[in-house]
Design a protein that fits this description.
74% helix, 10 helices, Formate dehydrogenase/DMSO reductase fold, mainly alpha
């Protein structure tokens, strides 16, 4: 794989990863915020949760469109299936789609009953938690599909043991476990990053008052600080798998340096939002936080691709 291909794949994967964080992390933030608001009798936390569950639905919609497009490719355009992970077939795609649809239906029900179930917060949170677990399970299975596809021998065909093992996590020492350890800060931190952007875009529609946004934007920024921790994932993967010496060269170090710069830069921008008494005025800072978070996630992914896939050097 050439370096330019790695870069473009990482940029696209970083964007998809942030959308996954919006869906999986936004649903979790909504449940945690509603529970905290109920315990502390603080309405701003409920409002924060309401905006977070909308973020989850925004993040899920593009993923459902991608799954539908993958199904169309497999069914009607088999010549273009090279765009998909090699291990992905119609049975796996349908199973993934059902998991995402179940999570989406539960999350939509959670969002739609926000006011109706205000007096039943525990039952309402149970609906939201079920949806969040389904969504995050779907993203974990999608990740597992990609990782198995990377390890699949080129000659393996649908129906082979390797193909059918998509639902079986790789053994310890494989790439899945470092990726799962990376997932939690990515999902919650990415949801915090994008929650700031959604609040900025929906400021006029969700008119909860200026005092609310003085509370909510710094709170989202606090969650976004977790995003920087995902940089530990490639380090763990490196030590567990000991890639060949040719894979760790100048370009890998450039990707790693880019990940450090962008992730730390995103954290400093989030700190600026947290410390501001007028966070709504920091529109440029919030947009820059999202951009640096995307570039940081893409740089981390570029490091991982560089270690996973044989390269043309």
């Amino acid at each position: 794989m050439e370096a330019t291909t790695v870069i473009w794949a990482a940029l696209a994967g970083g964007a998809l990863g942030l959308l996954a964080a919006a869906a999986g992390g936004g649903s979790l933030l909504a449940v945690l915020s509603e529970l905290a608001g109920w315990r502390r009798r603080f309405p701003f936390l409920r409002n924060f949760g309401q905006q977070s569950v909308r973020l989850a639905l925004y993040g899920l919609a593009p993923w459902l469109c991608l799954l539908a497009a993958a199904g169309l490719l497999i069914q009607y355009l088999p010549g273009w299936t090279w765009l998909l992970p090699r291990i992905l077939g119609m049975p796996e795609l349908l199973a993934l789609g059902l998991v995402f649809l179940a999570g989406g239906a539960l999350t939509a029900a959670y969002a739609g009953t926000w006011k109706a179930m205000k007096k039943h917060p525990l039952s309402h949170c149970l609906i939201g938690l079920s949806g969040a677990l389904c969504l995050n399970a779907g993203f974990a299975l999608a990740l597992n599909t990609v990782l198995h596809g990377i390890r699949l021998e080129p000659g393996a065909a649908a129906g082979s043991p390797a193909f059918l093992s998509v639902w079986v996590p790789p053994a310890a020492g494989e790439f899945l476990w470092p990726a799962i350890a990376q997932a939690l800060p990515h999902v919650l931190g990415g949801a915090g990053v994008l929650a700031m952007l959604v609040m900025l875009l929906r400021r006029n529609r969700d008119d909860f008052g200026r005092d609310y946004y003085r509370f909510a934007l710094p709170r989202a920024a606090q969650w976004s600080l977790l995003f920087v921790l995902q940089g530990a994932g490639p380090i763990v993967a490196f030590h567990l798998n000991r890639p060949p010496a040719h894979a760790v060269g100048g370009l890998f170090m450039a990707f790693a340096a880019g990940a450090a710069v962008f992730l730390i830069g995103s954290a400093f921008l989030s700190l600026a939002v947290m410390r501001s008494s007028t966070p709504l005025r920091l529109k440029g800072t919030i947009v820059a936080t999202c951009l640096t978070a995307w570039l940081g996630a893409s740089s981390v992914l570029a490091c991982q691709i560089w270690l996973w896939i044989p390269l043309e050097v």
